[in-house]
Amino acid sequence: MKMKIIAALCALIALSSVTRGEATDPAIINLPQWAGSTMQTMIRDMGTPTTELSYTIGTAPTKGWNHGLLFTIYPKESPANADIPIKELVWDQGQYEVRACFHLVKKAWLSLGAMKIDKSVRF
Question: Parallel, antiparallel, or unpaired for β 85-93 and 51-56?
Fold first, then answer.
């Protein structure tokens, strides 16, 4: 499972033409250094998030900042993925928000990925 997740993340980054810390659009900046981090680590380093969302793959929004990432790793059309829990945390950083998406692995919430997104961007 871990290799599947790593391969999917690498494919997603390659497809999006995003490299380490660079943005394809200055309004959306990939933060690959957070991939695989625990939720506790991100909260410790970034402070209390301003927003927390919880849902399952079966009820996940199909359009959003992380839908490509989520559905590459956990295809929504697969019934086996319907009940997989997902959490999103959002940190307010002035003109930007940092958004991170987490899945539950062996009782730990691990980051699937994070992005810094200008608040003017709409999905």
Answer: antiparallel
DSSP-based three-state secondary structure for 11: helix
CA distances from 121 to 7, 27, 54, 58, 68 (A): 28, 7, 22, 25, 16
Task: Specify the pTM.
Answer: 0.75
Residues in the chain: 123
DSSP, collapsed to helix, strand or coil, labels residue 95 as: coil
Task: Kindly state the tokens that stand for 48.
Answer: 């209390």
| DSSP state letter for 44 | H
Residues 85, 67: contact at Cβ < 8 Å? no
Encode pLDDT of 15-66 as tens digits: 443 444 554 558 889 999 999 999 999 999 999 999 999 999 999 887 777 7
- DSSP H stretches of helix in 1-123: 2-16, 39-46, 67-73
